[in-house]
Every structure is written in structure tokens, then in C-alpha cells.
């Protein structure tokens, strides 16, 4: 399911945009449930709400549409001669926004009719074909959420499958029950399987659902052979995965520079930020409380003398001043410019080399780690940089470098460590402290008092506590496996912000 969530829910912002249609069943059977159980309609609605929330905060250019079937009315361009009735195109393809979230919350309500989910699928295919014509999309996808509890005609099933393949449309199903009828250890099941299906809870799937499930299997295996069934999920598993907001994908920004060693050796390099602190995007705007319009709020700053009349002073007639004791020392723009450090521009200059063991982990500073590669089109630079990387690795050494991002940046001192992987090799740059950055603390010596010496039972208790909290475990081959995966740990600050 994790692979599914990445494919469906984690569309890349740096790549060509994708078009996706959410197709939700709102027919009256979706509101049926046992007492104390949440109806499939509410689960499906939560799924699309959470998905749209993720897309809004992902800040990408993907377009999302919404089609509802089982509605009391009909609104689609294929509805003629009594066909494709009770199917409503609620939202045409466009970038998701807060307005769509509000519409889902207030306007998507259970319908009093039933509609063929295959007809709804055809409407979605037509919507994608019509509204992506002349545009470039990386991927076309339809997500269908239903309980399959409706009479479905399979006369056109083969034609629908052929048209899906021809148009390059991928398909995913979300159901209230698992497709294989088994309770899965990974949480993809909603219960003991089809024996607890939503059509007739506790009595198994009804005939319509059984027929619909076979048609789903036929469609998905025809599109993606055996892997097609991996694209059929349950509502509960989707809600669990979607409860964590995805990170915003950033397009890597190349930093071209020259690695210099002394005055005669220069290697062309390109740096990329591998790790950097992600800041919360503060895009909130102050608006007038009644009109909710930003233009109705005007800001005005006035400078006044600290006298009885509060005499107004023009901004051009003010300069900065710093308090020194009881006096205020004026500090003009000219003084500020003269005090600034004059940089020579971007720089990645090797000052020397040292053993890696002499650079301690607690000395790492800054908010980023930079991976340094040779440019793709420069074979000479690749050979030279590779030689340097392998030499540093074999000698267990690191390069101490002077780093400056550009002319406006203050220089840093840092360490460049060799990094050799199966598919690539590079230098890893980490900032190191200057003398002023170090903090020295003096603490009193701990007294050798037998009263505070721990007993054997206390030591054993602490050892057991540490063992129980170890984030490293052994696999079947006895190899140590790190179970702390930073790439899977979301920042709770971002999660709280997005959930608000």
C-alpha cells in the first residue's frame, strides 16, 4: 500500500503535471452500515478530503477533477437518451484549492439514487480526454471509490479496457473491503474479509458486490496483469496513509563552482543541497474582518519625536543608532557598508586535509549538507574529482574547505567528506565552527561518593531499558538494520499546521 500511496498521493511537483479524477459513489447503498459502524460514504468522503488537502499543501501544478455518481440529478456531457444518468461532474480539471475542500465538506452529500460505476468510469475517461487535449500531462489517473453495491452491465467492459489502455489512463479502486477477502497483517483489510462486507454486514457480499468485484479484478489484471490487484485498496488503509501529509517536493537547484587546491589545481563542480532545514511557509495575509479583502487593509508607519507634540519625522531624516551605555551612537548607511565583509564571490577552496576522526560530530554546524559532484558533461572534472574522493576515502581523510555561496554571503569553514555509493560518488560538505562559535563550560567534578554508586540491579535495569529502546535490530542474516529512517519521520510542526 505504501507504493500505492506514493504513486497516487505523492505526485512530483518538479515534473510535468498530472491530471487526476476522483470518482466517488454517493448512492444510497453507501450510507448503509451496522449500528456503531461508519458508513462507507463517510469513509470515502474523508479519503478525498485528505487527498485534496495534501494536494493543496503540496504546492504543485497537478489538476484534480471530481465526479459523483448516484446523485439525484444528472450533469455530464454524455447524458443522452436515458444513458449516464445520476452522474454529476462536480468539478472540472483544475488545480485543487480551499474552495474545493469547502465544496466537498458542504456539498458532497449522500444521494437517493444508484448509478452504474462503469458508466461513471466512462464519464471520467471522457472528462480526461476532453480537458487534457492540447495540454502536456505526465500521467492521467482515475480513482474510483465505491462499495460496488449496484447492478452493473458488463457488455462494454472489453471496450472500456481497450480505451483505458489506448488513452494511457491508470486506474485505482478504493473499496470498503479487501479485494482478496483476507484480513491482512499490513492493515489493508477492514475486518475479516468479504464475510464482513458492507453490503450485508456479517453475511458476506451480496450478488451485485461479488459480480462487481470480479469485474474489478478483470479490469485491473487486464491493465497491469498480476500487479493490477495491488492498485485496489481499502478505505481504512487509505485514511491511515493519508493522515500524514506528504512533504513538499523541491526541484534540486544546481550550484556550479570551482573546487580549488592551491593556485594551480582547479576542478569544476556542481553542488546540491542534500539536507536542509525546511521552513514553514508563512503565506497568511491580513484581511479586513468583515469583507475578507486584503486591499481593504492599509498599513502606514509614522516616525515621531519623543516630545510632547510627537512631532512627525520623515523616514529619510532618520538613521540607525545603537545604545552604548547611556549614550546613543549614530550608525549611518555609509558606516554599515564600510563594516560589511567584502566577499570575492562563490568559493569552494581546499585549505588543507585532516583525519576524519579529528572532526567530531558535535562540531557540525549549519542547516544544510551539500553533495558535491562533477558536472555531467565534463569528463575531465569527473576523473579528477573521483581521484580526490577515492584518495580521501582510502586514507580516511577529509578536506577542510572555505565555502561561500555567492558574493553576498559570508564565508564558512567546513569539511568535505568522501561518499562512495553503488550508483554515484561525491563529496559531502558540512559547516564547521569558527573560534567564536565554540562554547566552553566548566562543571564541578563529580564526587566519588559511595552513596551514589549504583548497585548491580540498578545497572542491569538501565541496561535492559537501553536494550528495549534500541533503534537497531538484527535481520534474518544477523546483520544490523537501522529502524530509524529519517525520510519516514514527518515534522510534527508541519503536520499540525496542515491539519489546522
TrEMBL record:
MF terms in GO: ATP binding; damaged DNA binding; double-stranded DNA binding; helicase activity; hydrolase activity; telomeric DNA binding
GO biological process: DNA recombination; double-strand break repair via nonhomologous end joining; telomere maintenance
Keyword DNA-binding: yes
Region (Disordered): 182-209
Compositionally biased tracts (Gly residues): 190-202
GO cellular component entries: Ku70:Ku80 complex
Principal cellular location given in the protein's record: nucleus
Keyword vocabulary terms for this entry: ATP-binding, DNA damage, DNA recombination, DNA repair, DNA-binding, Helicase, Hydrolase, Nucleotide-binding, Nucleus
Compartments where found: Nucleus
Record InterPro entries: DNA_bd_Ku70/Ku80, Ku80, Ku_N, SPOC-like_C_dom_sf, VWF_A, vWFA_dom_sf
Domain VWFA: start-end pairs: 19-171
Database matches in SUPFAM superfamilies: SPOC domain-like, vWA-like
The keyword Hydrolase belongs to this UniProt entry's keyword annotation: yes
Family from the record: Belongs to the ku80 family.
Protein name as catalogued: X-ray repair cross-complementing 5
Organism: Labeo rohita (Indian major carp)
Lineage summary: Eukaryota, Metazoa, Chordata, Craniata, Vertebrata
